[in-house]
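Figure 2 data, in text form.
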Amino acid sequence: MEDLQRLSKRWFALFTASNNEKKVEKHLQMKQIETFLPLYTVTKRWKNRTTATVELPLFTGYVFARFARTESSRVLDVPMVYSIVGNKLGSLSIPDAEIEALREGLIAGRVEPHPYVKMGQLARIRTGALAGWQGVVSRVDGGLRVVLTVDSIMQSIAVRVSVDELDFLGDNSSDPDTVATKSRAGSLEQV
């Protein structure tokens, strides 16, 4: 019976009050609901010139939770949870593999938030924890980043890569500044 319950549980993105993601995670854990709140580390400099290293949510306003659809009301009862991300047909689950890849990418320490990108130069990451993911290639600070998008929550993250870690897809692969390929979802995107 317990195995059946475990199989019926899926990962979902919860839309939450911004700057309250950690509180939402604690409330969910108190209800014994499995959570995943991806955090990244950043050094902040305050007005008084002191600096501090803080952990911030990778996806502002979102917490991932694993539960059965029948438990939706328990999740929505949590303070500061506005909704379960979905479409007009209902809530959309996130594949376990995507959550695991995010966990591994965070362990590698190469992940940071990035503005949501719908169009751009695309490539597939060839090696590492995020191997197989396709994303938008951008140049930042003299290096390359691949912007990976989780379309269901309209959020993106940027991963630092070297050119030898990428497979450029599409007709313009000889020029990294004009590469276009198919995204993970299969749509053609161009900057």
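Caption note: Residues 2-94 form a domain with the Alpha-Beta Plaits fold (CATH 3.30.70.940).
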